[in-house]
Design a protein that fits this description.
mainly alpha, 2 strands
Amino acid sequence: MYVCSCFGITETQVREHAAAGACTPRQIASASKAGTDCGSCVRRIQSLLGRGGCPRRELLSETLAAASETAVQDLPEAARAA
């Protein structure tokens, strides 16, 4: 089914872009132009993206957690105890 009739973007294409890391309508627009002409498809794109986890956000969270853990381990013992 078409989501964006201005550029011929389908639900499948939006889901593929989302799986590749496009987590917002703006990122979908950057990847496919969907939502950049008349804008009537933006709400549909939002609903397809849903409130599910974003692979890119989840990866970022894991990376930041690992980095902060490493930073704490690199501190001298006295600083860690404080």
